[in-house]
Amino acid sequence: MKTAVDRIGSGKARQVNARFAAMASHYLFETDFCNPASGWEKGEVEKNVQDARRRLWQPLPSFPDLAALNAWLEEGCIEQGSAPCVMIPPARPSW
């Protein structure tokens, strides 16, 4: 699969590749694509992922077994998923 989107519509409308749609359905996630020519959006998403990893994995915990790790991951994901999300708009040039 080369791309996830076959065709870009107006606004956030996208025609998603059938294989990508099947993968999203299998792994139970919703798609939210960046807008073309809006490079700041991708950086914002990458930063959010980086921040989530730091909140979850630092300091690096240790677990007696895989079941304890999975329980801890589930608890952390639920906690982060219920936290309020604050979006900061990008700075606009002053020219």
Q: Mind explaining what this structure looks like?
A:
This protein has a two-stranded antiparallel sheet with strand order 1-2. The mean pLDDT is 80. The chain is built from three helices and two strands. It has 95 residues and is mainly alpha-helical. The chain has one domain.
Structure at a glance:
The protein has 95 residues and is mainly alpha-helical. The chain has three helices and two strands. It has a two-stranded antiparallel sheet with strand order 1-2.
Shape: flat
Low-confidence stretches: none
What's the number of extended β-strand segments?
Answer: 2
Question: What is the terminal-to-terminal distance?
Answer: 42 Å
What labels would you give this structure?
95 residues, mainly alpha, 3 helices, 2 strands
Topology, please?
Layout: E1 5-8, E2 14-16, H1 18-27, H2 39-57, H3 66-82
Antiparallel strand pairs: 1-2
